[in-house]
Amino acid sequence: MANNLVILESPGKIGAVKSYLGSNYKVIASVGHVRDLPKSTLGIDIDNSFEPHYINIRGKGDLIKELRKEAKNADKIFFATDPDREGEAISWHLAAIIGDDAKKAKRVTFNEITKGAVKEAIKHPRSIDMNLVNSQQARRILDRIVGYQISPFLWKTVKSGLSAGRVQSVATKIIVEREDEIRSFIPAEYWNIIAELKHENKCVVAHYYGKNDKKIKIENKEQADKILFDIDGKEFVVSDLKKGVKRRAPQPPFITSTLQQEASRKLNFQSQRTMKIAQELYEGVNLGSELGGVHGLITYMRTDSLRVSVEAQSSAREYISEKYGDEYLPEKARVYKSKSNAQDAHEAIRPSKVAFEPSRIKKYLTTDQYKIYKLIWDRFLASQMSSAVIDTVVADFENNGHIFRSSGYTVRFLGYTAIYTESNDTNSNSDDEQFSFEKNNTLPVLNKGEQFTANSIDAIQRFTEPPLRYDEASLIKFLEEKGIGRPSTYTPIITVILARGYVVRDGKSLKPTQLGEVITKIMNEHFPDILNYKFTAVMENNLDTIENGKVSLESVLSDFYKGFKKELDKATENLKSENVDIPAEETDIVCELCGSKMVVKNGRFGKFAACPNYPKCKNTKTLDKNGNVAENTTVEKADFLCEICGADMVLRKGKFGDFYACSNYPKCKNTKTIEAKVGLSCPKCGADIVKKQTKSKKQFYSCSKYPQCDFSTWDTPTDRKCPKCADMILEKKNKMQHYFYCNNKKCDYKEEIENGKN
After folding, report:
1. 174 in Cβ contact with 520 (< 8 Å)
2. Would you state the pLDDT for residue 756?
3. CA 487 – CA 261 distance, rounded (Å)
4. Which tens digit of pLDDT belongs to each residue from 712-750?
């Protein structure tokens, strides 16, 4: 029997692939990359055709030994890493570490983890595609050169520990520029005039449009008052009626960016969460014995192609015809055109099997998996359905030359919206007409020449609003439109700029920090090409041309480095004149001890608010992930003063619990342990029993009047009374023993506890 070895990238796929291939295939995983550039040095020989120096990743020694051992024992080896540039590069690195045994290795790829796709891939192995590998290497080398050669410049000009990324710096710039737009925005006044009109039993709400068929924007109160004066007391006459029919075609199936955007809008999922769940659905979920065990439920989720296989189209059309009827089925299968720079190696994101309806497999999925799967399934089915048909009507009401307009619609045919309606871009100020397919927005039957009177007319002052900050969905959309990054990089880009502290979340929005703004300013001044949108997009296209075999890795890197080296040398020459201070980020939180506005600081446990008058005032407050004061961080004064210096004692949080400390710290270091009442009375004097702790943080109980009353115990007081002497029962509990006993030392009552029972 042949001994075949299949090496996957992710351990999550092992179960499904193994079940499809049978006992003569051993399936193991590389768990991502096994080799990479060293962290301590550049790792690129720039003078020698940009030759990279790869080393085995630390911590993967045992895995590499296992891979080599299994490869030596195998008759055939199949590298089945992910079907993209990164996966191709991992296969190439795997071939390098197994050495001579790579001669019996072949590359296989599958766009979906289903039995048919996996078996078909094994039947048609190929060699490793070095164009794909070189495209990945070029990206890695570019990012390494930019990161390792610009970062030292930032250390010297700003502060140590900073880093710059080729695409991450551009993303930060996008967010900074939007913040600049918001700051510089000057609101412009405008007015809306809304008339509620009636005629017999008909009622219509109309908005001011203009005069003599010309649209007019009302810019001030004087204009509004003039219009109100012109129309006051006069009739509104139906002057024009326009009826039409609109057809709404469905959106194409998801690609990576649109899935991330829609999951953000509809489910409020961050892109990282969306991709994690999509990865789980792709790798396989156990659907139980009745549905055949483990199945990969969706196709590969890192794609920018809208292509769909003929088989998938056919199964979708068959389902639509059976479930909804032929009127919901267009004459021909819908084909969507991908963008010119799309990687067409994969299909769009779709369910691997239409028969696995979301409701049918819901019990086998987590809540998040179900939500993402349903989104993908619904969108794909809808993409192959008929258009929705909407009847529209626009009515103009004329009054003394002024036109008021009202519009309505009814949904004649639901079409694809019977399954799915796309969400609106909530981060856009678009005025595009929106339709609700759940309900109609109808106007009463109107006739030309009908006269209406005004039930009410309201003039409302408004002001234009600044552009909204980017959220993850709109940032990914912008990156995609500008050709910056690729499906596999959108989530890492956002993750990195957040982790580096260049950007923070403000609710769903992304807001630049002062550090991010300073870094962007410096990068703009010294490395304008790196931050240029068009330049970055051209570099992405160059990586595509390497993949297509049209240019070499060396020529792309060489062309880039010539311009980059000039910018780097010039920046280094001007280094001595640079001295950048990062201003403290001021908050709206007022220090209650001295009245100053607190500033944001970075600490060992994350960000916190601190008084700017440190060390005179050492007040701090914990901040939550949104930058707001966390609960229970307001300074709480004790009802007693420091017995050493007379200053206020304030509540503090420590490693071993809350305590009171002198507000005059560090001049006075007096502290007091908080005495927490336990709701029991002292068996000796009847005062409250309190919980305390020693200087070594060990807890004990005592009378609140201690030392006047000497009751104290290491064990836990209870509300039980001794059946022999009626004194208090105490509970002793540790790893070695557990029993109840009487507080009266002269009483021998003891109640052993064994395995939770008396």
Report:
1. no
2. 42
3. 12
4. 999 999 988 888 888 999 998 877 778 889 998 888 888
> Distances in Å between the alpha carbon of 737 and those of 732, 746, 753?
7, 22, 8
The label of the residue with tokens 């208090």 reads 728
> At what angle are helices 490-499 and 166-184 packed, to 10 degrees?
70
DSSP conformational letter for 103: G
* Confidence at 7, pLDDT banded by 50, 70, 90: very high
DSSP per position, 675-744:
-EEEEEE-TTT--EEEEEE-TT--EEEEETTTTTS--EESSEEEEEE-TTT--EEEEEESSS-EEEEES-
Angle, CA 275 vertex, CA 137 and CA 310 arms, to 5°: 85
Euclidean distance between CA atoms 377 and 383, whole angstroms: 10
Quick one: angle between helices 166-184 and 533-547, nearest 10?
150
- Closest alpha carbon to 73 in 97, 101, 95: 101
Task: Report residue 39 as tokens.
Answer: 């962290």
Q: Quick one: the chain helix, strand, coil %, rounded to 5?
A: 35, 25, 40
Structure tokens at 258: 């649109």
The stretches of 553-624 forming alpha helices (DSSP H) are 553-573
Q: Which of 148, 140, 159 is nearest to 522 (CA)?
A: 159
Burial class (CB in 10 A: 0-12, 13-18, 19+), 241: middle
Task: Provide the pLDDT for residue 755.
Answer: 45
Decide if 488 contacts 260 (C-beta within 8 A).
no
73-101: buried (b, 16+ CB within 10 Å) or exposed (e) per residue? ebeebbbbbbbbbbbbbbbbbbbebbeeb
The DSSP symbol for 251 reads: P
N-terminal to C-terminal alpha carbon distance within the chain: 63
The percent of residues in the chain predicted with pLDDT above 90, rounded, is 63
DSSP letter (8 states) at residue 549: T
pLDDT band at 438 (very low <50, low <70, confident <90, very high): low
8 Å CB contact between 187 and 464: yes
- The DSSP result for 597-609, as a single string, is EEEEEEETTEEEE
pLDDT at residue 124 in the model: 94
CA distance 73 to 60: 20
Rounded distance, CA 404 to CA 407, Å?
10
Q: How far, in Å, CA of 544 to CA of 557, rounded? A: 13
Q: How far apart are CA 114 and CA 92, in angstroms?
A: 25
CB 671 within 8 A of CB 660: yes
Across 521-543, average pLDDT: 91
| Closest-CA residue to 692 (of 703, 708, 681) | 703
Alpha-carbon span 57 to 55, nearest angstrom: 6
Contacts of 70 by beta carbon, 8 Å cutoff, 6+ apart = 5, 26, 28
- The token pair at 81 is 């890493």
What separation in angstroms does the CA of 360 have from each of 15, 374, 381? 22, 11, 16
For residue 572, what are its two tokens?
């280094």
Rounded Cα distance between 17 and 28, Å, is 10
| pLDDT(591) > 70 | yes
Residues with catalytic function: 300
What amino acid is encoded at 284 in this protein? G
Q: Which amino acid is at 69?
A: K
Torsion sign over Cα 314, 319, 322, 325: negative
Q: What order of strands is seen across the sheet that includes strand 671-673? A: 637-641, 648-654, 657-662, 671-673
Torsion angle, alpha carbons of 238, 242, 247, 248, to 10 = -50
Cβ(96)–Cβ(68) below 8 Å: no
Contact between 611 and 598 (Cβ < 8 Å): yes
The two beta strands, 4-8 and 25-29, are parallel
Q: What is the dihedral of CA 105, 108, 113, 118, to 10 degrees?
A: -80
Q: Which two tokens stand for residue 718?
A: 């209870």
**DSSP structure string for 480-522:** HHHT-S-TTTHHHHHHHHHHTTSEEEETTEEEE-HHHHHHHHH
